[in-house]
Amino acid sequence: MINFSEVSETNAMIEKENLDVRTITMGISLLDCIDSDLETLKKNIYNKIYKSAKDLVRTGEEISHDYGIPIVNKRISVTPIALIGGSACRSTDDFVELALTLDRAAKDVGVNFLGGYSALVSKGMTGADRLLIESIPDALSRTDLVCSSVNVGSTRTGIDMDAVRLLGRVIRQTAEKTADRDSLGCAKLVVFCNAPDDNPFMAGAFHGVTEADRILNIGVSGPGVVKKALESVHGESFEVLCETVKKTAFKVTRVGQLVAREASERLGVPFGIIDLSLAPTPAIGDSVADILCEMGLEYAGAPGTTAALALLNDQVKKGGVMASSYVGGLSGAFIPVSEDQGMIDAVKAGALSLEKLEAMTCVCSVGLDMIAIPGDTSASTISGIIADEMAIGMVNQKTTAVRVIPVIGKGVGEQVEFGGLLGYAPIMSVNPFSCEEFIKRKGRIPAPIHSFKN
Amino acid sequence: MKRAIITVVGKDTIGIIAGVCGYLAQNRINILDISQTIVSGYFNMMMIVDVSGLEKSFGDMADELAALGRDQIGVQIKCQKEEIFDLMHRI
């Protein structure tokens, strides 16, 4: 039977160390909504989302109450809209109409975000893909809850550099259209390589076409819990360090597994995967950078950071897979800058540069995330940053992503405030040398040799 | 059997156990195990209870217990279903 110290440990994790289930994300397929008439399509999309997710928020709150575990976000991901709107949308404005419909549905069911205003163009763009991508600046400036992502590369297909070039411009336009809100629109746009179909985390969640009609994916988190556990093994060997991270990751993931099982049962929707990511928040003590410091670094970004992060990422997975049979999504340690107080401190102290972050993305779960850059950064430089990050993902057979925010009207050293879970960030400097001639080239970068496995 | 864990934490005073147990009896909740200590004037108690006889919803009962602790006894009372502890601490 459960004993006193186990109960105290669990409750201390929740009350003092910010253990939570970060998100319950319901994936909803919109493939059966497709129609060539835009009005019918909008009606179908709204009805499907409303009918599927109307009880999601209430159920999440009930589970949270029963077990005493906070469930921070309830979200929806949908089939990439470029596929759904392909036959009905003739212009970028038509796609924006769909974004407005998604926003209305998300607000009516009460979720925090809805992801899937997306296109999958890792080898090439259809007409609809291109229209959707070009509509992103308008869509994100005119909606509140819609998140957008574009997958521009994969290990199997290479990188679509035409899409990379286009997205450099789209990110700049999105920043300009939301300049009055510190270019917040860009915080809702992710560019991916090897995007997973079942990621529950925003802004990059979408419901892949290989998924069932409806599915529940759960994202767990707990950087504070890992940090606290590591405090108790200060100065011990790497073996003890690894063992401690694994045990903690196991415990954190089991909570996610419980919530997943309950939610699936109560909503009558099959459980998909648990994403066992260490996702930081701006709250004090909920930081991945603090874990790296606890391992023995003065600041995140100091020499040794990439090794420490690689160890952390690997041990989180090893502990987590034991706790659930269906682990998926991104799974690992997130290193967003604006959402992590320790990362913000590291940037302010001059310990962490964009180049070091890029190195860290080789071994973390995703990529360059929530990084504010100067507002005068050119579209081709943004495309260059994207291309570098996509190449890392393609060659290393991992998911990588770019979510950078060129903050219009602000420069290096200034600060930008996004609010809520998105946090705040000092603007980081970008390498000033040009890559314009490289980005101007047309076509795609071929898949690497090790992708030919057949 | 549906088990839940009740934890009570707060400054020690007369009638904490009586207050909690009175509520449990009224609501047909059977106590299976109690452990309790006082650490430097602070009262700590954990109860394992069977809630299968409960007639109201689990959430309502947890809210009422929390309110009883806050408004009448002056302690913090939490009631959680047992699985969260079981899953976390048992393979």
List keywords for this structure.
heterodimer, A: 454 residues, alpha/beta, Anaerobic Ribonucleotide-triphosphate Reductase Large Chain, eleven-stranded mixed beta sheet, two-stranded antiparallel ribbon, B: 91 residues, Alpha-Beta Plaits, 3 helices, 4 strands
In short:
The complex is a heterodimer of chains A (454) and B (91). Chain A has 15 helices and 13 strands. Chain A is α/β, with parallel strands linked by helices.
Task: Explain what the structure shows.
The complex is a heterodimer of chains A (454) and B (91). Chain A has 454 residues and is α/β, with parallel strands linked by helices. Chain A has a domain at 217-441: Alpha-Beta Barrel (Anaerobic Ribonucleotide-triphosphate Reductase Large Chain). Helices cover 44% and strands 17% of the residues of chain A. Chain A is built from 15 helices and 13 strands. Chain A has helices at residues 4-16, 38-53, 56-67, 81-84, 92-109, 127-142, 161-177, 223-231, 238-267, 288-295, 305-323, 341-348, 354-360, 379-396, 436-440, and strands at residues 20-28, 71-78, 113-120, 146-154, 158-160, 189-193, 214-221, 271-275, 368-374, 400-407, 415-417, 424-426, 444-445. In chain A, strands 1, 2, 3, 4, 5, 6, 7, 8, 9, 10 and 13 form an 11-stranded mixed beta sheet that branches. In chain A, helix 3 (56-67) packs across helix 9 (238-267) and helix 9 (238-267) packs across helix 11. The N and C termini of chain A lie far apart (51 Å). Chain B is of the alpha+beta class and 91 residues long. Chain B has one domain (3-89): ACT domain (Alpha-Beta Plaits, 2-Layer Sandwich). Helix content of chain B is 37%, strand content 38%. Chain B contains 3 helices and 4 strands, in the order E-H-E-E-H-E-H. Chain B has helices spanning 16-26, 58-73, 83-89; strands at residues 3-11, 30-39, 42-50, 75-81. Chain B has a 4-stranded antiparallel beta sheet with strand order 2-3-1-4, sandwiched between helices. In chain B, helix 1 packs antiparallel against helix 2 (58-73). Chains A and B meet through helix 1, helix 3 and helix 9 of A and strand 2, strand 3, helix 2, strand 4 and helix 3 of B.
